[in-house]
Amino acid sequence: MIPLKTLGRWLRPGLLLSLLVMLTGCDAVAILSPKGQIGQDEKTLLITATVLMLLVVIPVIIMTLTFAWKYRASNTKARYEPKWSHSTAIEVVVWSIPCMIVLVLAVLTWRSSHALDPYKPLESDVKPVTIEAISLDWKWLFIYPEEKVAVVNEIKFPVNTPLNFKITSDTVMNAFFIPHLGSMIYSMAAMETKLHLIANETGEFPGMSSHYSGLGFAKMHFTAYSVTDAEYRQWLDQVRAGKETLNQASFKALGEAKNSEWYPVTYYGTVEEGLFDWVLAKHMGDNKHYGMKHSHAGAAAADASSHEAHEGHAPTEAHDSKESGKNLDATDADEHGGHEGHMGSGE
User: Is it the case that residue 211 has pLDDT exceeding 70?
Assistant: First the structure.
């Protein structure tokens, strides 16, 4: 049997080599290799918090091993004080250092939570690019409302330009995430979330859904390209040249194609105006403005559709008053129950 000391000598070079290999491959770890300002700030926050916590963790590990070795049963030279029970100096050190570290972490967390708020627009002299992202089963649809084009599973944007993402879902809840650029945020039906990012250098950055959503979840990824202004304009011209048109009918067809494999990049040269608001409004139903702020246009469209539907089904004949009263009571009960259910989920 190989002695533990000999085994340790053999494994030590291999462990060091593995560590070097992992360090040289850190570029593959997107979070630790940010390409945008938000990602860089989050990396700094992560490292700072880790170092502050290690100020407690490392000494505790060292002291645990030291005490275990020094006061082992075979060491008869160690001091033996069975009646010892308290030391003010130890209590001060044990409590003051962690309390100071927790205080520093609290201030750091408070400030960074506001500074890195995903809803907070980025300050820049460059006009931002607005992208409306809709999660489907199982693919991402990106609409450029100002350019009136749309793309499936691909986005391109100019480098050093703020990106204003408006995000929602046409199905279940998902999570929009480009690790190289920064924060993750959820996409939810009938709700609009926002995310502001920026790329400080050109390149290809993988994007994904970081929230499990069903059979094709593993294939629900896309590529984000940070390019020069000229390349961005050239790409827009390429998308506009596409013959596909994205309207309510083609959107429904796209959503019904529940792909379990990766959905190929698809360009839509023309997009129906207000499609993103329509996707929001069609899922709202009676659940209006519980905890989230929706588009006024989308809400108005939903109200108009509901009003027209009630008018279209207006009674044309007189009914027995007793039966009408029963139907009205049942309808009111259903409506109140429905609202209560939505209020509960909203809260």
Answer: yes
